[in-house]
Amino acid sequence: APGTSVPSPALLDPRCWHRGAPWEPGTRWTEPGCLSCTCHGGRALCEPLSCPVPCSHPLPAPEGTCCPICSGCLHEGVTRAEGDVFSVPDGNCTVCVCLAGNVSCISPECPPGPCPSSSTADCCSCHPAKCSFHGHTYMHGAQFSLDGDDCTTCVCQNGEVECSFAPCPALDCPQHEWHLGPGQCCFACRDPPAPSGCFVDDNGVAFPVGQIWSPGDPCELCICQADGSVSCKRTDCVETCPYPIQIPGQCCPDCSAGCTYMGRIFYNNETFPSVLDPCLSCICLVR
User: Fold this and answer.
1) Any alpha helices (H) in 80-227, and if so which ranges?
2) Whether the predicted model's global pTM rises above the 0.70 cut
3) Phi-psi region of 60 (alpha: psi -120 to 50; beta: other; left: phi over 0)
4) In sequence order, which ranges of the chain are alpha helices (DSSP H)?
């Protein structure tokens, strides 16, 4: 109406001043600390920023931003790239994939009962089949003998029994010396016959067990042992007189045999002339 003053738009909805900066009415902006602010009626209205998350496993907000992202997946605290295929630790062969921020996992289908193959046995919580053999039931992997025959070893593998003979070592003796003892599975070489004497020289001279002889040195004595070996020992002589007599073929000197004078041997109480003076007569006295 004439004479009526019309207020300006600025007076109806004035601008907002926030932290020293002007904002137009209806303006929306984001402040540090992830606050969403709006200018309304000259006042800045701020509230925490609400972030819509269109995925089930969002990643933390990148540095400098407020809202988490869905480019990739966060699974059990581990970041996975988009399209990454991975397995879960101790997940019984479960395989997972990261798609659009969501993690989808697939577990293998395990057949009931015994495992059909070793590969599925590693992933499935199945139990290998037991073995029924000759009226007995054996667990998978059990080893046993065949009807008490220790020479044959059997093993239960996935419901089937496999038997094999016990391996025997190679013998280094001729076949005519092979011997199979009672209760033994493998042949063995016969024990060599016990020696009946000792062979001591190239001429094949044999000494019976227990025989004692001297091999040429009167101070050395040898004896034939029961196992065919020869044991020898030297004799230690002890001189008990100042003038011992060495008798040929005897090991130790003899103090009771007589006297030695100028290379000759005289018996006890024997008299003989002196070489130095023919008028002197000498006598051998053994003391």
Assistant:
1) 118-123
2) no
3) beta
4) 9-12, 118-123
